[in-house]
Amino acid sequence: MSTIGDQILDRPLPKIGEKSLFTKELETALLENKVDFLVHSLKDMPTSLPDGLAIGAILRREDPRDAVILHKKHRGQTLETLPPKSIIGTSSLRRTAQLKRKFPHLIIKDIRGNLQTRREKLRKGDYDGIILAFSGMMRMGWEDAISQVLDENVMLYAVGQGALAVECRINDCAFFAPLNHKQSVFPTIAERSLLNTLGGGCSAPVAVSSKFSEGTLLLIAAVWSLDGSVTLQETLSQKITNEELKDEPDEKRKENDLYCGMTVHGLEPLQVRLSHKLGVTLAQKLISEGALKIIEDAKTACMKS
């Protein structure tokens, strides 16, 4: 099945002006009972889903970082060592802003199409390098083509990147609950709650890094102007343990709540709620520092470019 995002390839994603670019047609088929469930890259899913649908499970998250494939003439180099005015392809405002801030000697150019199409454009010499999700490259078996993996201190990644999500009709959620991977669910709910509170879609210049370890959830988030000259970045952590939940009343332990489209079947609902709260709180902190104007100005600049 083909989506709007698959069909319109002559414009950057933010210029298409549609929400649910990679999910709308699929969700229509699900609502019409033409398919039983959908599997998405979580980063492509809006934080609000159509009535009657929900994320039934988030599978084990792969490495969420971004990675670089360089043209063969640049073998052995990195973004730092590329010649001035080398052309790097990406379809993401998030990546564009960070690349312009960290690597001002490079030219950042939009690139569209599926992974094979983008790699062919690179092979033909239209670009000196392209930036893709590391997890997507690994699923394609392209690990030998990777020139550089970008750590979080170089490039924060997209909300939900690296995770696959099962979308289903809301009455079917319990069936998919055993597929949930707790160490992936808590960070991605925090990330999606942050993005939802900021009001940004999956193409907004918002990026994150998160980690759930030993009962503590750590979330880093940032927003950028399109040219990377203005940025806000904040960090927040939260204990997600039973000790934190002992004083919560039983009536709050519900399994029918939705958190940015995600159900909590098979999980401790209050742990999910704490993850959600962390994302909301961090977003509110960024908003208090002017994040909404930065995001809006970035989108406006993109539309005018």
TrEMBL record:
Pathway: Porphyrin-containing compound metabolism; protoporphyrin-IX biosynthesis; coproporphyrinogen-III from 5-aminolevulinate: step 2/4
Domain Porphobilinogen deaminase N-terminal, chain residue ranges per copy: 1-172
Protein's recorded name: hydroxymethylbilane synthase
Requisite cofactors: dipyrromethane
Family assignment from sequence similarity: Belongs to the HMBS family.
Keywords of this entry: Porphyrin biosynthesis, Transferase
Residue ranges annotated for the Porphobilinogen deaminase C-terminal domain, each copy included: 189-240
PANTHER family the record matches: PORPHOBILINOGEN DEAMINASE (PTHR11557)
Annotated EC: 2.5.1.61
Enzyme class: transferase
GO biological process: protoporphyrinogen IX biosynthetic process
GO molecular function, one term: hydroxymethylbilane synthase activity
Organism: Cimex lectularius (Bed bug)
One Gene Ontology term, aspect cellular component: cytoplasm
